Amino acid sequence: MSTPSRTEWEHRASILKIESRAFIHGEYAAAVSGATFDCRSPIDGRLLAQVASCDAADAERAVADARAAFESGVWSRLAPAKRKAIMQRFAGLLEAHDEELALLETLDMGKPINDALKVDLPAAVRCLRWCAEAIDKLYDEVAPTPHDQLGLVTREPVGVVAAIVPWNFPLLMACWKLGPALAAGNSVVLKPSEKSPLTALRIARLAVEAGIPPGVFNVLPGYGHTVGKALALHMEVDTLVFTGSTRTAKQLMIYAGESNLKRVWLEAGGKSPNIVFADAPDLRAAARAAAGAICFNQGEVCTAGSRLLVEAAIKDEFVTLLLEEVQRWQPGHPLDPATNVGALVDEQQLGTVLDYIAAGHAEGAQLRCGGGRVLAETGGVFVAPTVFDGVSNAMKIAREEIFGPVLSVIAFDSAEEAVRIANDTPYGLAAAIWTASLSKAHLTAKALRAGSVWINQYDGGDMTAPFGGFKQSGNGRDKSLHAFDKYTELKATWIKL
Ligand code: NAD
After folding, report:
1. Which of 25, 358, 411, 419 is the residue whose CA sits 20 to 30 A from 312?
2. pTM (predicted TM-score)
3. Nearest CA to ligand 1 atom 32
4. Where is the Aldehyde dehydrogenase domain (predicted)?
5. Is residue 375 domain-shared with residue 246, that is, in the same domain?
């Protein structure tokens, strides 16, 4: 089937019915207070919906409902094969509604429709399917006991999981939490970002249609930190899972300490080094990947390759190739299927990105392309992909996560220096290495303090690979069977025979 044209997407956008209420016990409901907040599209500023602004009163309702569903056993004690079949139906319903969900995502946070439809949606569906498929493949353990003892080591669902997610991949980040949380038998209260609440609200209905019992999956949109904080402080939330900024992540650990010591699992920020050695097998391929690593999703990616470390001997040659490749990434209307750089999520994010560009100038980095807002006449929030050369790792643009398409090029002279610069950051989410030397690749990979390392590519891996960070990029892992660690408690049952 051919992809709809921009005109067709715009027509669909004009007649789209958008759900804006919270979802509790299998039904949509206004916030207890009746309050709403405006949800605007960064494409042109249009008002998409007035979304329920939940607060502590809604958190009370949703958590009580999730707890009751959990205790009833309607999901938590359902036979694995049945839970699996329902989750597969859920994944299938996301797939069946892929164009509607992609459109919602693009309107809500500005990413190109082609990415929403061909990257985010398939990845979200794959995640749910993969976790569903694992349900009846995971065995518990029998301990090697003496003859008169039987030792069982079993995994149990933790109970009520609160999931707080960001706006850059709203549906996919939600599914990275929902997939293993629901597969393990928990009840979930999902809090989407106030900047991108729409797909989370839509899939809640699909979950119930698939057969997930009311109360097992609730969604609470809210403005600012109010409802997220209420969930993080709630005494009946057993586990809090989060993707977002390191600043918020630290606050959530405090909330857990101030309340019930709920388990807290954090996927936070990054400032990932992309290291190109002079012996890289294909400099053009490396340059193409480096451009994609900072331009894809407008640079609003936790693993964005925002520090490009290039061996000094090839630096000028490489930057020339890089600038050619960056030219292929130009902002355009997000509903145009040909667009590969969409709108930033909102004016506030644009202001942040422009402030970092100003800081790059102020600290003496050399601007090689981009450097400002574009397409302002559309009313949308667009910024040109920006490359700074001559950056030192001490500069603000090299130290702080920008979350926009702004790349810092840093030269190095030796593998030791590359590793030292790469690791000189509070973050440790991802890194990439380009070299033809097997030994250099492995030695450098070992030395890098990052949760994911990619060699001769950027952003490798799939649902089989654990994803998460070292240092202030977080703890625990999403994806793969390791993700189930977040959503289960281990129990040792010892029987005297
Ligand atoms: P954010 O921390 O501002 O917000 C994330 C979520 O937390 C939102 O739902 C927000 O409403 C909520 N929140 C904010 N303050 C809160 C508080 N005090 N208490 C409870 N909830 C609160 O992050 P963001 O701007 O939405 O997302 C961008 C960040 O997410 C970047 O730092 C990026 O690196 C990170 N991110 C990380 C990963 C990863 O897997 N490591 C993936 C995507 C994004």
Report:
1. 358
2. 0.98
3. 245
4. 35-492
5. no
115-142 confidence digits (pLDDT tens):
999 999 999 999 999 999 999 999 999 9
Q: Note whether residue 497 is domain-resident.
A: no
Separation between Cα atoms, residue 398 and residue 405, nearest integer Å: 13
Per-residue pLDDT of 437-480, as tens digits, reads 999 999 999 999 999 999 999 999 999 999 999 999 999 999 99
Pocket test for ligand 1, best of 111, 171, 193 (most atoms within 8 A of CB): 193
Domain count, the chain: 2
Query: Which numbered atom of ligand 1 lies nearest the CA of 467?
Result: 40
Do 262 and 321 sit in the same domain of this protein?
Answer: no
Enumerate helices (H) and strands (E) in the chain, giving the number of each. Answer: 16, 23
Same structural domain, 264 and 403: no
| Residue bearing tokens 């969604």 | 219
Would residue 492 count as lying in a domain?
Answer: no
Residues 363 and 443 both lie in one domain: yes
CA distance 415 to 275: 9
Question: Which amino acid, one-letter code, is at 173?
Answer: M
60, two tokens: 């009370």
Q: Which two tokens stand for residue 212?
A: 């997930």
Q: Which domain holds residue 405?
A: 273-462
| Local confidence band at 2 (pLDDT 50, 70, 90 cut-offs) | confident
Q: pLDDT tens-digit profile of 383-442?
A: 999 999 999 999 999 999 999 999 999 999 999 999 999 999 999 999 999 999 999 999
Given the CA of residue 267, which atom of ligand 1 is nearest to it? 41
Which residues are catalytic, by number?
267
Does 427 reside within a domain?
yes
* Pairing mode, strands 27-29 and 239-243: unpaired
